[in-house]
Amino acid sequence: MQNNWRHARPNTIQRYKLGSNLSIKSLAIKGNILVVGYSNQTVNIFDIDSQTLKLKFSRTYHIPIYQDICPIAKVTALVFFCRECKVIDIEGECGVFTVSSNSGPISSISISRNILAIGKCNGFLELYNWKNKSKLFSANIKSKEIRATSIFPLSETLISVIVDHELLILQILGSTFKVLYSDQIGYTEFLSISKPSMSIWKQNTPYDFDVSQPYPNLKYCLVINFSNHLFRYFFSFEKGTLKYLSQRYTNLGPFGCLFASPSRAIFPQNTTKKAINIYNFSNPEFPEESITELFPKFNNDETDVGQISVAGSNINFLVIGYTTGLLEFFWFDPN
User: Fold this and answer.
1) What are the distances in angstroms from CA 128 to CA 71, 78, 118, 119, 138?
2) What is the distance between the alpha carbons of residues 332 and 161, in angstroms, rounded to a whole number?
3) Which pLDDT tens digit goes with each residue over 166-195?
4) Nearest Cα to Cα of residue 165 among 104, 118, 226
5) Residue 233: exposed, middle, or buried by beta-carbon count in 10 A (0-12, 13-18, 19+)?
6) Domain locations along the chain
7) Nearest residue to 9 (alpha-carbon basis) of 320, 327, 319, 318
8) b/e sequence 206-226, b meaning 16+ C-beta within 10 Å
9) What's the CA gap between 244 and 145, in Å, rounded?
């Protein structure tokens, strides 16, 4: 498995296309769950099983502006029009919880086994228990937009947010909160015009990060991606204490970033967006090892698949979405 992500030689496994005259607008992958939003307002949820995409859920909603997945609970949270967040039970193929925001637009979300975290443009952070449909917490963090939100795996009280140009790690203490860590994110001129993304991955071994599996070793990698800038922060959490370990910064070039994780980053090769580069990190805490090129035409297939619009990856799989509505699924070949 380690060679898969270290060398990242992708082999095409499957192509899926919903219909003609469609484009893929959003994509998220965690564990073996893939959520795709299309231009016709269809949301498809796939299960990745034995190198095969299996359609589990398909509904016409709207195009998700923000989305997150909890592969352990098998739920996804989708935000529509910045005013409504809906939690979908993937196995039950139905909505199980909905939050309508009347106090300000939703600007970010994160979901875990029990908790739904919602960040708002007015600086408020709200926490809900989506299972019993109760509101647990609401506070104004800094009176500025919460631009990204992420719940620490295996924790219901550790929340990371980006407010303006600042990273904050919060510990929720009943009706109040405590700041455990803060850092001013550099390159603020880019952050001011780019929407950052943030994810937190729990470390199992020095080379293996996976948000879908519970492990007892509470070491984390926090990944922030905006424009072409990638930050990876490393923490441990032991006996109620969060400890900063190290940080890595990577400049991915001038064409932005489609996806980032502790082990790899995916970004367009050039402005035509006909090919991507896969940046493979030889060890998440040390310098980069290699860049793998990936072109959309394989096996003498001359069909124009369009531009690459979205991409995502877990440890073993890579998924690419195109402006033509094509979804392409790859396995990272260890050989």
Assistant:
1) 18, 15, 8, 12, 9
2) 32
3) 999 999 999 999 999 999 986 555 555 678
4) 226
5) buried
6) 28-263
7) 318
8) ebbbbbbeeeeebbbbbbbbb
9) 25
How far apart are alpha carbons 33 and 312 in whole angstroms? 11
- On whether the CB atoms of residues 319 and 29 are closer than 8 A, the answer is yes
β-bridge mates for residue 299, sequence order? none
Please enumerate in sequence order all residues whose Cβ is within 8 A of that of 314, keeping only pairs 6 or more positions apart, or say none: 29, 30, 31, 32, 210, 212, 261
Q: Could you give the 3-state DSSP secondary structure of residue 2?
A: helix
Closest CA to 321 of 31, 61, 22, 33: 22
pLDDT digits (tens, 9 = 90+) for 76-128: 999 998 899 999 999 888 899 999 988 889 999 999 999 999 999 999 999 99
| pTM reported for the whole predicted model | 0.87
Beta bridge pairs of residue 137: 127
Three-class SS state of 6: helix
Structural tokens at position 29? 């992958």
| CB burial readout 143-173, b (16+ within 10 A) else e | eebbbbbbbbbbbbbbbbbbbbbbbbbbbbe
3-state secondary structure of 323: coil
Separation CA 221–CA 140 (nearest Å): 26
Query: DSSP label at 165?
Result: T
To the question of domain 28-263 being in CATH 2.130.10.10, the answer is yes
